Predict the 3D structure of the following.
Amino acid sequence: MHPNKNTIAGNRIPISEKPPKHLTKVAAEVWRDTLKKVSSAGYQIDALDTEAFTAFCSAAATIRDCDALIEKDGLCVDGGREGVKRHPAASVKNSALTQLRAYASSLGLTASSRARLPAEFQPEEENEFAQFDEEPKEISRQKNLESTLESLRKYQPEVLAAFVAEHGREPNIEDMS
């Protein structure tokens, strides 16, 4: 994955595409699949979040493993003297789901957590009409200057007076660069 300014957690160093060696085969598969999806959505996971992402992948792998066991044995199993009982993998799966949700949210892997990200971390959307939405830069700079001068006149006239005394004129657009 290439560095991308639309990071999830803020640090600009991307996480390695290569899963840690200690992950199970299934967790490593989750690692690669999730990073592809994250990257194709215009985000990246930061290297600082390696441990959280590792835990996310392990939880996802645990869920898959539990699903396979429940599929094979059924939701209910023989509990010996206790009779028929819920498959133990169901409880393990519920615990892993709780962990998965928490890590997914903290990493920005859910729609609601991405919606809370600051605008600087949102992926840029292509907009063929964007050129019509923005003011020309000179007009925007002129408005900014006018607003700044108005604020100086109103709230800090001594600052404006000092500038005029030093330069013999009020500030202009070139002074704002």
In short: The helical segments are 25-40, 50-73, 88-107, 111-115, 130-133, 137-155, 157-167. Strands lie at 76-78, 84-86. The two ends are 36 Å apart (CA to CA). The chain has a mean pLDDT of 81.
